[in-house]
């Protein structure tokens, strides 16, 4: 056996941590426990009288022997107890530490999960997701949380003033005007359609989540433009079922133009979840409220995509062609959207029209698209990547000008039949349509770059690279006869004319000078003319 004194002297880490008071109470505990051991481990008061007698006689004989070893045993038992107390303290301290670490880890995990998968956490009554024709880093807001975002406009979301504003914006100015909820209203197509509808006297309310997939300040500028024309655009998300429900309570929308989505073909490889959150979960959230809550059910027109044709090789692309071979996740979510539309039409009697847009471009466009980013890079003297097919042939797109697409959207809204259900019940067959909205004239991307070079007065630095395996398709070409037949869709803008409009807007919006401006200024200076700039200097 180890000598007790050595054990008593040894101090563990927890002994070092103990304060004076703790030391005193430990000494008392040792003394009490030692007294109990001297009584044979059994307190005297718990013995029967005969037992007490026996203890007295045996105890007397043993007294002298015990006296000699008493202090040694006291110390030994004391140290034994101190060891047990110490180890109990170690266990207690460790479990305390473990408890704290577990709480901390749980908090961190919840935080991370909230940041990365808010739609999953908030699914149901007040879930949120991305909207606004974009959505990489979703800017999620619920009805309650939106109040902070609305501080700028001094409207308390859901309050009486808010309801007044919503009703004002939703009220048509012409007889039989539509009452339209536009999702993704601060997006490219959403802005143009909202303006066009407002101008002809429809009532329009927009929602957009203003996410940062591309420069949110451009979306804010579009919101400002719409505001100046009397269109209210709320900062809200299509997955926010509470907000959608509230909106349908306040306004009996006759139509929904659903343009909110995660766009971009190649970005889907970098942020796949955002496509599921917006283009699948968001679509379902909207259909749910429209089918089960809205009274009356609205007719819905929504943005599908030419990308659903995927690896289809039959041209021009017709609505009757195969769409079961998407080449990107973006395309797959749009194709899923078309299948989901079928389901809600079939079960709930929702009137639904899908529009397959073909590479829409124009003023107030999307900076992630090639014509826009090429313009930025050409002006900045930076190189562009020009994709070509594996066989060396040019990649081609059926570029479609925004004004043509707006006419197509309005035509689809105007010819949409009312939904037939209500309160989650179908009362009869409802309209289900899909249309191509393209330009019917594919152009090689290299030609698009040539037009930009002319308009910008500057040569592009081109890196010609083989089309990467990133979901891109080599060729698109729309057959639009169905849209023409049903609502007189007829695209009228060729790429050169449309890009001219785009560059005009770009130069004004970003206050930049093209090479053409610089050239003409130089020429004027050389010729001694007064240019507007020198005249004001
Ligand atoms: O029509 C559609 O369905 C789709 O049109 C566009 O997708 P995309 O046609 O790929 O448009 P851009 O990203 O602007 O690309 C246009 C062309 O430029 C090419 N490109 C793009 C980027 C680049 O760096 N280099 C390059 O040569 C592409 O291969 C493509 O042929 C939109 O981004 C999608 O949201 C839309 O759904």
From TrEMBL:
So which domain of life are we looking at? Eukaryota
Q: Which residues cross the membrane?
A: 97-117
Please provide, in alphabetical order, the Gene Ontology terms of the cellular component aspect for this entry: Golgi cisterna membrane
Q: Which Pfam families match?
A: Epimerase
**Looking at the record, which segments are called Disordered?**
41-60, 516-537
What's its membrane topology? Multi-pass membrane protein
Task: Please classify the protein's predominant subcellular localization into one broad category.
Answer: Golgi
Query: Where located?
Result: Golgi apparatus, Golgi stack membrane
The record places domain NAD-dependent epimerase/dehydratase at 180-416
UniProt lists compositionally biased (Basic and acidic residues) regions at 516-525
- Gene3D superfamilies this protein is in? NAD(P)-binding Rossmann-like Domain (3.40.50.720)
Q: Which UniProt keywords apply?
A: Isomerase, Membrane, NAD, Transmembrane, Transmembrane helix
**InterPro entries this protein is in?**
Epimerase_deHydtase (IPR001509), NAD(P)-bd_dom_sf (IPR036291)
Q: Would the keyword NAD turn up in this protein's UniProt record?
A: yes
Q: Which reaction does it catalyse?
A: UDP-alpha-D-glucuronate = UDP-alpha-D-galacturonate
Task: Give the EC number(s) under which this enzyme is classified.
Answer: 5.1.3.6
Q: Name one GO molecular function term.
A: UDP-glucuronate 4-epimerase activity
The residue ranges flagged as biased composition, category Polar residues, are 45-55
Is the keyword Methyltransferase in the record? no
Family per record? Belongs to the NAD(P)-dependent epimerase/dehydratase family.
PANTHER family, alphabetically? Answer: EPIMERASE-RELATED (PTHR43574)
* Protein's name according to its UniProt entry: UDP-glucuronate 4-epimerase
């Amino acid at each position: 056996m180890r000598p007790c004194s050595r054990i008593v002297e040894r101090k563990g880490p927890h002994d070092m941590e103990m304060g004076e008071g703790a030391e005193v109470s430990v000494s008392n505990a040792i003394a009490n426990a030692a007294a109990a051991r001297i009584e044979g481990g059994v307190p005297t008061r718990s013995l029967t009288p005969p037992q007490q007698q026996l203890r007295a006689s045996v105890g007397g004989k043993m007294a002298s022997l015990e006296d000699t070893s008493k202090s040694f045993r006291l110390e030994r038992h004391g140290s034994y107890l101190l060891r047990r107390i110490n180890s109990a303290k170690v266990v207690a301290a460790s479990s305390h530490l473990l408890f704290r670490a577990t709480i901390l880890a749980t908090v961190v995990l919840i935080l991370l999960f909230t940041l990365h998968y808010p739609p999953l956490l908030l699914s149901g009554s007040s879930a949120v997701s991305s909207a606004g024709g974009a959505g990489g880093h979703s800017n999620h807001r619920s009805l309650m949380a939106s109040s902070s975002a609305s501080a700028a406009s001094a409207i308390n979301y859901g309050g009486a003033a808010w309801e007044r504003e919503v009703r004002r914006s939703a009220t048509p100015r012409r007889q039989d005007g539509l009452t339209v909820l536009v999702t993704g209203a601060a997006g490219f197509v959403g802005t143009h359609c909202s303006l066009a509808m407002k101008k002809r006297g429809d009532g329009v309310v927009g929602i957009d989540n203003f996410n940062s997939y591309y420069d949110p300040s451009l979306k804010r500028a579009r919101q400002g433009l719409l505001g100046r024309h009397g269109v209210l655009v709320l900062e809200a998300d299509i997955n926010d079922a509470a907000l959608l429900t509230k909106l349908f309570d306040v306004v009996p929308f006759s139509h929904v133009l659903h343009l909110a989505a995660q766009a971009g073909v190649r970005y889907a490889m970098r942020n796949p979840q955002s496509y599921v959150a917006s283009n699948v979960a968001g679509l379902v959230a909207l259909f749910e409220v429209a089918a089960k809550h809205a009274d009356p059910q609205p007719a819905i027109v929504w943005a599908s995509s030419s990308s659903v044709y995927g690896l289809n090789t039959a041209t021009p692309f017709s609505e009757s062609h195969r769409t079961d071979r998407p080449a990107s996740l973006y395309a797959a979510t749009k194709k899923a959207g078309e299948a989901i539309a079928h389901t809600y039409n079939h079960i709930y009697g929702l009137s639904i029209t899908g529009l397959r847009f073909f590479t829409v471009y124009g003023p107030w466009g999307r900076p992630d698209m090639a014509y826009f980013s090429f313009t930025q890079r050409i002006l900045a003297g930076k190189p562009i990547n020009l994709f070509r097919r594996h066989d060396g042939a040019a990649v081609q797109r059926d570029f479609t000008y925004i004004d043509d697409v707006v006419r197509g959207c309005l035509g689809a809204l105007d010819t949409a039949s009312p939904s037939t259900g209500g309160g989650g019940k179908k009362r009869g067959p409802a309209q289900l349509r899909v249309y191509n909205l393209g330009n019917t004239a594919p152009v090689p991307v290299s030609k698009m770059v040539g037009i930009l070079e002319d308009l910008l007065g500057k040569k592009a630095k081109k890196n010609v690279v083989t089309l990467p395996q990133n979901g891109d398709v080599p060729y698109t070409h729309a057959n639009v006869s169905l849209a023409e037949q049903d609502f007189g869709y007829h695209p009228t803008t060729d790429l050169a004319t449309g890009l001219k409009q785009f560059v005009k807007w770009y130069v004004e919006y970003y206050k930049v000078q093209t090479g053409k401006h610089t050239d003409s200024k130089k020429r004027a200076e050389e010729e001694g003319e007064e240019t507007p700039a020198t005249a004001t200097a």
